Amino acid sequence: MNQFYQKCLTIPLTSLAHHLARQFASKQNRLQKAKQVYLNTLAILAVKDFLEELSYPTDLELGDSWNSAISCFHDTADLFVLNLSKLECRPLVGKQTTISLPREVREERRIGYVFVQFQEQVNEVQLLGFIRALDPISAPEKIALAELEPIDNLIDYLYRLEIATEILQKNRQIAAIVPEKDSTQFLSEIIAQFDRIIRTVRSDKQISKGTEILNLWVSEDYCRSQRELQLNKIARRLRDNLLDIWQIETSPKVPEWSILKWLSDEIDELAKVVGWSIVEFEPSVAGIKAIDSPIMTRSLTRQLEIAGQNYELRIIPQSINSEESTWRFQLRNLAPGGFIPGGFKLKLLTRDGEDFEGNQDLATTATEELYLDITVENGESLIWVTEPYPQNYRREIFRF
Predict the structure, then answer these.
(1) Rg for the chain, CA atoms, rounded
(2) What is the pLDDT of residues 120-163, one digit of tens each?
(3) Residue 127 half-sphere exposure, CB side, CA atoms within 13 Å?
């Protein structure tokens, strides 16, 4: 069974939940829409029961999904968490590896998304996991199950937002950007975005990304003179305050993996969540020079989303001996007949993030693949990167 279904939490659905879901569904004119509203309502009520059991009160009336007029036109399943903002509760039917997010959901301000699995018998559901706030500028249309955090982490995440919101409401400079109406909701949404930025964006880019978020959230009437400068200052203050409140490093910790350990044994659970897997292959296909280990019949693979398309990154052993090894890093488009557009780059960097001679392959025109063959001494480490960056890119150090 898939590891995500093993770790999920089961929530029973009450007769009252089904009654409410049928009430909302009966107001729809089309059968398909009625089914959608029925499942959305049950997903919301399941997440509501989970949160309130753990002392996180919610208010159904403050969600758009509890408004029949809005439900007629939009596929939303939002749940308002008191003292914070809205979680999206997305229902899933059947075994899926990816989850689609409707356009209206991607465009709304959510502090997180909880994914609720339905079975044929609708007497209970499983909370598969959740993701935190998405980038409102480039939110993906689909989420892979591999990207979900365990549902147990949701309470820690909500507490993280709640304590930061409570503290920062007292900061005068930050409070100046917050409207009096719905101030807690507004601030918690911004903090959720800064949480995403701190976790996923390089420290030297965090302030500019934070300023982009503030430009989206803060009223155009705020500080018409030198607006960009003022928002930049507030973004820095927000980022620094949150780092202090959460007591975390300025830069997210870069995970370090041992390639030889993976290929000779198995991939770590954390790396599986990131998306790495092992593929068996015929050595002759990859042009391997020598076979002296079972490692030589395996490669590492990970799917990436770059500029809205799906790609695969492979790390293929070419030769291995007691002193050094040669590896091929290969990037290709997963679409049938797909190409890599001109201007794309595949790069390798030292563990300190520095370039070196012959460390990149550039697509000057559309091409079938980009690849780099690299020979490294045993124990040496490298970082891979593509340009443009993949969705939710974080650096990884590979030790050889």
Answers:
(1) 24
(2) 888 899 999 999 999 998 888 888 888 889 898 898 899 999 99
(3) 28
**Three-state DSSP class for 182?**
coil
> DSSP H helical segments within the chain, as ranges?
3-6, 15-25, 31-53, 68-73, 103-107, 153-168, 172-175, 183-200, 206-217, 227-246, 259-264, 269-274
pTM for the whole structure: 0.62
Number of H helices, E strands in the chain: 12, 18
Burial label for 195, CB within 10 Å (0-12, 13-18, 19+), is: buried
53: Cβ contacts below 8 Å, ≥ 6 apart: none
Which single residue is written with the structure tokens 């350990």? Answer: 261
Give the dihedral sign, CA 146/152/154/156: negative
Please tell me whether residue 161 adopts helix, strand or coil conformation.
helix
Beta-carbon contacts of 232 under 8 Å, excluding residues fewer than 6 positions away, are: 207, 208, 211
Per-residue pLDDT tens over the stretch 49-98: 999 888 899 999 998 878 766 666 778 899 999 999 999 999 998 888 88
CA–CA distance, 295 with 63 (Å, rounded to integer): 53
Compute the distance between CA of residue 42 and CA of residue 374 in angstroms, rounded to an integer.
Answer: 53
Is residue 366 within 8 Å of residue 345, measured between CB atoms? no
Q: Who's near 261: CB < 8 A, 6+ residues apart? A: none
Task: Name the 3-class secondary structure at 11.
Answer: strand
Nearest to 169 by CA among 155, 183, 181, 156: 183
Tokens of 156: 């820690």
Neighbour tally for 365: CB within 10 Å: 9
How many Cβ atoms from other residues are within 10 Å of residue 390's Cβ? 19
